[in-house]
Design brief:
Blueprint lengths: L14 H27 L2 H7 L2 H13 L4 H9 L4 H18 L8 E7 L6 E9 L10 E12 L2 E8 L10
Antiparallel strand pairs: 1-2, 2-3, 3-4
Length: 172
């Protein structure tokens, strides 16, 4: 430690806190990987259950803005839609998400996660597409998008899917 070090008197981050951040990051990473596998397999109901309530409400609201019948949107939001209505809605949602992710080779994905500094109960998982064999010291994967997850009732839930490399803080 140097005498002029401005950080010399700051307390070190406790190990327990570092471990909690690492655990959070790993838990969210596993859910993000499962989310993309669920999309690639076409399991719409499982995908829907992986979204947070906030994300589900946003998706339904967006559907209404784009022409979905108000009564159907209300039934979906309240959980009173028929199985047929729900399956039709989720099928359309799945097709839209699969379209957004078209061209990704799910078998060649790599992942990295980072706890959001402003919101410690949120983790951003970036998914990357591997271009070739993994070679130490050489970038072999490029960013393809990110998934923002939050911890709710001790479960990681998808808040937002950004199916492209984003500019970081500027995305909405």
């Amino acid at each position: 430690m140097e005498a002029n070090d401005p950080f010399a008197n700051l307390p070190e981050q406790p190990e327990a806190e570092e471990e909690a951040v690492e655990e959070a990051s790993e838990g969210a990473l596993a859910v993000a990987e499962q989310f993309l596998l669920t999309i690639s397999s076409g399991n719409a109901r499982e995908m829907w259950d992986m979204f947070s309530e906030t994300a589900q409400a946003y998706i339904i609201g967006l559907g209404h803005e784009r022409g979905m019948d108000f009564d159907l949107a209300s039934r979906l939001r309240q959980g009173t839609a028929s199985d047929e209505e729900l399956d039709q809605f989720l099928g359309d949602l799945m097709l839209g998400i699969q379209h957004d992710l078209a061209g990704l080779d799910f078998s060649r994905m790599a992942f990295e996660s980072k706890v959001e500094p402003e919101a410690p109960m949120q983790v951003r998982v970036n998914y990357l597409v591997q271009l070739g064999p993994e070679i130490e010291g050489i970038q072999t994967a490029i960013p393809a998008g990110s998934i923002l997850l939050s911890l709710q009732n001790e479960q990681w839930k998808v808040e937002r899917l950004v199916p492209r490399p984003g500019p970081g803080k500027q995305e909405s």
